[in-house]
Specification:
Urease, subunit C, domain 1, Diaminopimelate Epimerase, Chain A, domain 1, TIM Barrel, eight-stranded parallel beta sheet, 28% helix, 22% strand, globular
């Protein structure tokens, strides 16, 4: 039996699976106290992991009108159960708050599911060409001017195996079509000669602010464009239609509810993202609370911060629907800045305090010495201070991409300036990624009330972390790479952001890595399952506790999004966003932490996904 619900927009949400196991507890049927309104739904026979201030474990919850009205023992549940109450027996499965993903790219994630998928594989040049040709052959009906877009390319793996591919390599494919291959980190794009021509890019095209077109030793374009140069290249691709973006948004929401995500922030959003998800809200199809960090483009923001920040504020005002309610809606009060690129080889565009290392020897006999490359810093300190002041004055929060220790430090310096110049400002900054941080800056996150938004899965051994990246960073800096545990010990608030689709969407693998600092050889989404030397911890940095990584992916992520009073923990008065897991994350072996799955996802007390023993509702017993 399926259920549907008419939303305030007047459309019906059909085809969503209802709650299973609607069993009335013995002795509870029709027991609502006189004069007390009964719950719509109760869930019992936990454990209920609340993520409240004391990390309380309870046994039962009651929900009415999309909110928790009771959280406690089974002994206290009876007064909330009436004749119309649906009682769900959890059968010992763990219930916890719905996950809050504080940094992803939802529309891009949905779009990636429709494109030529390189599946994050470790591909040499031959394998890369083979996969691209297969995608071309499968779309022979496309015209000669239709771009082939390939995604989820692990540039680091290709580089470590055969070196960077070039446009000349792609020119050998059997097609007249332009090609754009986007790296999984979204910071590099590879194209063929046809793609360069269609984008109007020549060897004399100037690099845009915050990016570069890579040239070879002879000054010719290699076909690789990094950061803003990649965006300039892909601007030649015709924009998606509104209908296409709705499809992408629907696919993203399906993925989110399967992962147990009930709230998310799209971390580089604009009018397209807002339009697509608002349309789904109005159609009654929005199944997660959507937050948007509005992207501020490098060059325009640096040259005209007043106009760019004012435009972002106006867009945020058009998007934001106010305080969250039981029905998931849209929020926008954050802007996004890029401070640098990535610290991963071969790009080496994350801004460092001391230079990347280079090989002064040979491949067979390497000798790593400090070079001259410090990476790329997209805003000078004085300009960044000016921009952050204007953001704070506009009543917005800022979410700053910073992977290198110099970018992190300058972001913290600018935040410190805002705190000093505007001590009364209601300002919640966050720094995303922080893959390398100077140890002297660890405590500044807490002192400056700045959230560190970390992608825990990056703290596993992989092509993007060991090998060339390890050598380029140098042993001391690599020894403190991905410092979630150290930042947490220094008092920083840590929130979790998957950065999907940069990686396969596998949140419990990421949480496992957050605890153990190592991947899972049994999980196909983990590099440890693909290559033997990807096993074991990435370095000697500490992990976080199980309770702490859960808090990072719930209440502390909700704090970053200014929603901690509504979601992120299971407490009376909060919105009933919850998930039920196959296994208890707080018990069992460390290696099993990622081998979990979500069985039930509820948003505002409404089931949006049900699987396993909760997949098909059974008739309720007589009450």
């Amino acid at each position: 039996m399926k259920t549907s619900r008419t939303t305030p927009g007047g459309a019906r949400l059909a085809g969503l699976t209802s709650l299973l196991a609607a069993f009335c507890c013995a002795g509870l049927a029709g027991c609502a106290a006189p004069g007390q309104e009964a719950a719509d739904t109760v869930l019992r026979n936990g454990p209920i992991v609340t993520i409240d201030a004391r990390d309380t474990i309870q046994q039962a919850v009651a929900i009415r009108d999309g909110k928790f009205i009771y959280v406690g023992s089974e002994a206290g549940l009876a007064p909330w159960v009436g004749k119309g109450t649906r009682v769900v027996d959890l059968g010992g499965h763990m219930l916890m708050p719905g996950l809050v993903d504080a940094h992803l790219h939802a529309l891009a994630g949905g779009r990636s599911l429709l494109q030529c998928d390189l599946a994050y594989g470790s591909l040499g040049h031959v394998q890369l060409l083979s996969k691209l040709q297969a995608c071309l052959d499968a779309t022979r009906d496309k015209g000669p001017d239709t771009w082939l877009e390939a995604v989820n390319w692990d540039r680091q793996s290709t580089f470590s195996r055969d070196g960077d591919p070039t446009r000349a390599l792609l020119d050998g494919l059997h097609t007249p079509r332009p090609i754009a291959v986007t790296s999984s980190d979204f910071h590099s794009v590879l194209t063929n000669s046809r793609g360069l021509r269609m984008a109007g890019i020549t060897p004399t095209t100037p690099d845009p602010a915050g990016g570069k077109f890579v040239h070879d030793a002879n000054g010719e374009l290699t076909g690789i464009a990094e950061d803003a140069a990649g965006w300039q290249l892909k601007a030649a691709i015709p924009p998606d239609s509104d209908a296409a973006m709705l499809t992408q948004a629907r696919l993203a929401l399906t993925t989110l509810r399967q992962q147990g995500v009930t709230t998310f922030m799209d971390a580089a959003a604009g009018p397209d993202q807002a339009k697509a998800f608002k349309a789904l809200y109005e159609a009654g199809e929005l199944t997660a609370r959507a937050n948007f960090a509005i992207l501020l483009p490098h060059g325009d923001t640096a040259s005209n911060p007043d106009r760019i920040v004012a435009d972002a504020r106006a867009l945020a005002a058009r998007i934001d629907q106010g305080a969250p309610t039981a029905v998931p809606g849209l929020s926008a009060h954050t802007v996004k800045l890029f401070m640098d690129g990535v610290v991963n080889a071969p790009a080496d565009t994350g801004a460092l305090l001391t230079p990347y290392f280079r090989n002064s020897g040979t491949a067979a006999d390497p000798h790593w010495v400090a070079g001259t490359n410090l990476g790329e810093l997209y805003y000078p300190p004085d300009k960044l201070r000016e921009i952050l002041d204007k953001i704070a004055d506009a009543g917005l929060d800022v979410h700053i991409h910073a992977t290198g220790e110099r970018a992190v430090r300058q972001a913290l310096d600018a935040i410190e300036g805002v705190r000093a110049r505007r001590p009364a400002a209601d300002f919640r900054p966050s720094i995303a990624h922080a893959e390398t941080v100077a140890t002297s800056d660890y405590a500044r996150f807490s002192l400056l009330e700045t959230t560190a938004t970390m992608s825990f899965q990056w703290a596993q051994r992989a092509a993007y972390s060991i090998g060339d990246t390890e050598h380029h960073l140098g042993p001391e800096r690599f020894s403190r790479m991905e410092p979630s545990g150290s930042l947490h010990r220094a008092g920083a608030r840590i929130s979790y952001g998957s950065d999907w689709p940069v990686d396969p969407y596998d949140i419990f693998l990421a949480l496992k890595v957050g605890v153990t600092r190592s991947g899972d050889p049994e999980d196909p989404n983990s590099p440890a399952s693909q290559q033997a030397d990807y096993g074991g911890p990435i370095n000697g940095e500490p992990g976080m506790s199980r309770a702490d990584v859960l808090r990072a992916a719930t209440l502390d992520a909700a704090y970053q999004l200014r929603m901690e009073g509504k979601v992120g923990s299971i407490e009376v008065g909060k919105l009933a966003d919850l998930i039920v897991l196959d296994k208890n994350f707080l018990t069992g072996a460390d290696e099993d932490l990622g081998r979990n799955r979500v069985l039930l996802t509820m948003v505002g007390g409404r089931t949006v996904m049900a699987a396993g023993p909760f997949a098909d509702p059974l008739p309720a017993r007589d009450r």
